[in-house]
Every structure is written in C-alpha cells, then in structure tokens.
Amino acid sequence: MNARNPHAGLPITDDDAAIAAALEDVSVPALMLSLVHLTGDPSYIRGAIKPRMLVLNEIQGFMPEEEQAEVRRLALEAIRAYRDAGCVLPEQPGPELLHEMMSWVACDEVPREYLPMLLEDMELDGVDARRASESGDPAARAGFPVVVIGCGQSGLLAGIRLEEAGIPFTIVEKNAGVGGTWYENTYPGCRVDVGNHFYCYSFEPSDHWSEFFARQPELQAYFESVMNRRGIAEHVRWGTEVVSAVWDEGSATWQVTVETDGARSVLTARAVISAVGLLNRPKLPDIEGMDDFAGPSFHSARWDHGVDYLGRRVVQIGAGASGFQIAPTIAPDVAHLTVFQRTAQWMFPNPNYHEKVGPGVRWALRHLPFYGRWYRFMIFWPGSDGALAGARIDPEWPHQDRAISERNDLTRRWFTDWITAQVGDDPELLAKVLPDYPATGKRTLQDNGSWLRTLKRDNVDLVREGVARIEKDAVISTSGERYEADVIVYATGFHANRFLWPMHIVGRGGAVLGEQWGDTPTAYLGITVPNFPNFFCLYGPGTGLAHGGSLIFQSECQMRYVSACLDTLISGGHRSMEPTREAHDEYTARHQAEIKQMVWSSPAVEHSWFKNRNGDIYTASPWRLVDYRDWTKSPDPDSYTID
User: Fold this and answer.
1) Rounded to whole angstroms, how far apart are CA atoms 249 and 129?
2) Taking burial as the number of CB atoms within 10 A of a residue's CB, which of 21, 196, 478, 537 is the most buried?
C-alpha cells in the first residue's frame, strides 16, 4: 500500500533516538490519527487522552504537556514496531471510522454532509477525484484548443487539468514567470496568511515548507516546481498580455489578440478560461503633487529592489494586508517610518505566523502514514464554514454600529482584549489601533504581535489621517502636518472591482463584457456569463473568500466545473454553451440577497475593497464551502443554452 498511495509515507529506517527527536516537533492530535492508520487500532482516539478544542492555527488541541509526552512515548513504541516489521500498513479505516476520527480531532460532531468534501480534499485513498477526464474521442479533444489567461495558481491549475484531459491549450501570462500574485508581490515581509499545508493543491502537497506561513520566494518556487513537474511551462507564452478576445459566431471560436514586446498576434480558441484573479492591477491614489516627489516612490506590488531604504525616512501610505507585513519588516532598518492608515484593522493572534517548520514536522510529513493529510484537515476545518455563521447580521441586535450580532460582539471583545494587552499602556496609540467597525467586517489580519510592536518603536509614527498633498521631500496630512520623506511606498491595494480590466472582451452580438458588467460584475456560479459563449472565469465575480477556506480550494472546485463544461461541449459535438439569462439572474439575485445579510455589507463598514463605489459587494462569496463545492461538481444542462 505504501507504494500505491503517496500519502502512506516513506519507509522508516531511522533509529529510536531520531524518531523520538522528530516526535517532539509534531502536532500530537495529528500524530494520534496517524497511529490509527499505522497500527489499525482505533483505541488511540478512544481513550482519555484527547484534544480539548480545535482552533485555527493551534495544532496541539490545547492538550496538557504531560498528555502530549505520554502520546509521544506510546507513538515511539508503535512506530518502532511498524519499522521493525517492514513498514507494512494494516487495513485502512473505513468511512465510519474516518468520520469518527474527524469528529474526534474537531472536538465536535462533523456533519455528515461535509464528508464527501473533506474526504475528497484529503485524498486518503491516494486518488485525485477532481482529475480531468480523458474520456471521449481523442481527435475531438485535440481539435478543441483553449486559451488560458494568466499563470497564477488558478491558471496553472487550468493547465494541469487541460493536460490531463488531452485538450490543447496555451496559457498567456503577462509576467516572466509563474505564480501570479506570488510572482509580482516581492515586497519585504510578503507571506501567505493561510497555513501552507492547506495553501497548496490538494493533489500536490508539499513537505518542504520551511515556515508554517511561507514567504513569497518559497511560494513562487512551489508553483514553479509544480509547473515543471507537470510539464506545463512549454504551453505558456511569457511576457505576453491579452489585449482583446472577440467571439466569432460563424466559426464558434474566440479570436484572442495578444501582445509580446509590442508585437501583436492572434490566437484562435474554442474556449477561453480567465484566470487573472482580482488583486493583480495595482491601484495608486490620486494625490496632489505625487509627480513632484523627488525621491523614489512605488506601489507595494511593484517594489523597487534597487532602492536602499537603510537609514532613510520612509513614508508608507496604506496599512492593509500588504502594509501590515511591510512595516514590521523594514522598521528596524529605516531611520524613520511614517505609516498613513485610513482605517484600523481587526486582527487576531497567530503565534505560528513567523515560525519555522521544525525538522521533526518535515520528517513526519514524509514518513508517518497520512500525518500530512490530517494536519491539512486541522487547518481546513476550523477555518471552514463554522466562521460563516458568525458573519451573519442579526437585525434584532441593537448595536449595529459596533457589531452585527451578539456572537460578533463577543468576537470584537476578544480581538479588543488581545490588542489592548499589547498597547494598553499607551492610550493614544490604543485609540488609533482599535477599529470602530464590526469585527471581521473587512479582511481580518493575523499576527504574532509584530504589527503593534512596530508601532511602539521610537522611529515609527502611525498617522490616522488622509494625505492632503505630496511635496518634493515630504507628505502633508489633511491636518497640515508635514512628514519628511526620502522614499514613499504606496500600499494602496488593487482595482479589485474591475474584473478582467483592461482587456476588451466582446461576446455574442457585439456585447462588451466591461460595459455589460459596469460596477456590478456578475457570473453564474461566478464562472459563466450570458452573451459570452465558451468563456469561463476562475476567481470570477462573487467568488472571493472572506470567511475561510483558501483560493486554491475554490479554484479546484471551479476548474472541475469548467472541465465538465468542456467535456459537455467536446463529447456532444457542440459549438457553444452559455448560461441562460434566467439561471444567471436567479443566481445573482440569491447571491445579492445573501451577501447583504453578511457583516461585509454592514453600513458600519466603510472603505472596504470588497465594496464597489455604491457600497455593494460583487467580489466576495457568501456561500458555505460545502454548498459551493456541490454546486460546481458538474453543470446543469437546464441552466445553459447549448448549441
């Protein structure tokens, strides 16, 4: 079984001392679940020793040290016996025992409706259930070329699935390398805020992460290694942008105009998959005097590594997710750092945010049967749909200005207590860093205390005002205060509500996608759009996750759906498919009705990148992950016009 299942672990040849040392690093609950696989004995999870609570980013289940030590002692005995017997696994747990194991580590009953989703993601049987089908006439597939726009994580995924299906494809990528946001954002301190052992493809787990929340170079290297291992690079046109895509009704093809180094050419495709994401076009503010600044200035997503900020006065305009990471990284090296922040952000503690993965963890991921799969579950489940209930507005709650429900108010108090514990000795700073909107109403950040420690430094000032203008050597606040600057960093976000901009997409009957969408971009399931046949979006309108999960999980659901649509077209010999107006409008109405009941839509939440200029949300998903996964398993023919 070890040879057939990639998650069953490599043979163990280490001596007892090496194994014991490795076990000091591991998650004890995940270790106990691995022991059930290794021994075939479920008593490891049926005794008195068990986790007390499963909370996001807490990997020991709040188990006392003495209990953890006892489990490690028992585990060493079991692993020694397994090693000495030749590393032969017994019969593996069946569905009922697996459900028991999930509920045991979750410290609560995992509803049965979640089992298909969880088992599919964990791949305990070693099977990638979302792998694209190669069924049907190979010649028909070979005659159905596809253009994929973008080679970030979702575009690379699209290429992998198209390759599996035997469908010819070209990926058009504006950058010189793979990774999308993880290629472009190279600013100091850039790292992921979803645990790495979940923020990776379900079918391409990695046991090489050096940190639990890896930094940009390692993330980009992961996608590059997957691309090379899967042979996708030869299908990519690097340094190339899509200028336009026009549907030709006569041939039922898309004519895709691309530009490389100023030279344009046209690709013909039977289908187009947009994998451009939301956060890929930097948004600069409109501030008087920006061009008058004499020193270097740049957006955080276009970090100028030729600029030495050592010993210089830096002004950082913006302190959202990127600025939150930049400031603690550069503050020790600059002469002075001034941070302009429009709105304080809610944050919650994550002690592992900057922690390195110990050698014992990497050993366990490689050798202990299914340890990595259960560790992935421990990251996935507490960050899944459980948080969504807390995001729902209770219209009867009387204090909507500060919270949207009693549960949300408790969350606010927890966040407030954590922040106050760090800066309560500085009332002026505390007043600046405590948000005045409901908790989780914007992208909630996580930290191990580095942000607030940075703001307490003598060489750092937090300015909770807007910027009135910029002069050649200073930034002037709206109150008229002057802040001298040698370097300006704009950590001001992206054009998140301008999907597929600035591409010119023309569909059936001359419909222009940008005009059809305007400020209210919509798509059926966030994937397909009326008037645009054989056009599919990954990370399209209304699919961004604000409550949990990861975009890689979301992309895997969406790409399975796209693969099924392509299979429908090819196997049926069809020219085109597009969602009916009725299906699209009904889905959009449900999406809008649901999103308006969530904290992100609260009128008390202003200046959120989730919202368009009218305060409506067409970026984020309000759906449970389990529901969206079920809806995207395969297309409903009744929701489509198929020609």
Assistant:
1) 35
2) 537
